[in-house]
Amino acid sequence: MPINSKVTLCGAKARRRNGLPCRQPAMKNGRCRMHGGKCTGPKTKEGKLRSAQANLKHGLYTEASMMERRRMQEIMKWRDELNEI
Ligand SMILES: [Zn+2]
Q1: Contact status, residue 22 vs residue 35, Cβ threshold 8 Å
Q2: What's the CA-to-centroid distance between 52 and ligand 1, angstroms?
Q3: Which of 13, 23, 74, 83 is most buried, by the most CB atoms less than 10 A from its CB?
Q4: Which residues hold their Cβ within 5 A of ligand 1, which is an ion?
Q5: Is the overall model pTM greater than 0.70, yes or no?
């Protein structure tokens, strides 16, 4: 099938084609519908926050709980050091 040369091609590195550029027609942002043409994720601060909230499972790896654990480890270390004296 000949491709219309006026159409901009996506050109993303395609894994299915052994790393050759993708030949799908590109959308407005220069990528095809499979390589980020339709949507590239939330843009606004509110959107990003909403996405993060929607994807939060248990919060064990949030910055706050990581900090908390790190602090606890530090305290345990001090405790052990004091016990050694
Ligand atoms: Zn593509």
Answers
A1: yes
A2: 27
A3: 23
A4: 10, 12, 22, 24, 32, 35
A5: no
